[in-house]
Amino acid sequence: MIKGGLQCEMEFCRLRIVASPEHSPPFDVDAIAYEEDTFLIMSADTEIVDPGKNIMTLMTNLIEIEPEPLGSVKIISGNPIKFLAIIHDVDREPTWEEEWIENSLREIFLEIEKRKLSSFALPLLGTLYGNIEIEGFLTILKRIIEKASIKNLRHLWLIVPDRSSRDIINLLKTI
Fold this sequence. Notes:
The protein has one domain: Leucine Aminopeptidase, subunit E, domain 1 (3-Layer(aba) Sandwich), CATH 3.40.220. Helix content is 29%, strand content 23%. The chain has 4 helices and 7 strands. The protein has helices at residues 55-64, 98-114, 134-147, 165-174; strands at residues 8-12, 15-20, 31-37, 73-76, 81-88, 119-123, 155-159. Strand 6, helix 3 (134-147) and strand 7 (155-159) form a beta-alpha-beta unit. Helix 2 crosses helix 3 (134-147). The longest helix has 17 residues, at 98-114.
């Protein structure tokens, strides 16, 4: 790694883990994870559009919406594939729990292997909209990777805040 660069990396369980900010992708990814809530509000499009339906139909649809299960992952097709990690319940305070993050991570790695993906981008779940400590997230991540049966995944991009790549990789190494 070039001293002063935006990226820092390590090998762990035959997996190349690269920490880099969102604006500096270290490689192309097959899929990317996002923090999400049970009603998928966090990933909702903010552009106002004409729904093309009458108000009664819209209200009926809203009443019938079922929340996504906490700790699950909703997959959205595309390139890259979106993995929505359901780790927030906006009706609770705090909106997240470590158990939900752990369950989502476990499901993410199962889906990665099921889909035979070789590269994946993962933000530090629970740190963007929640207040889990980075060390807490990395501890969970390392435990999940150690227990996962990883055969296809070769490259994991940890999406980290600017100027924190080296610190995060060093912390991951010491956990």
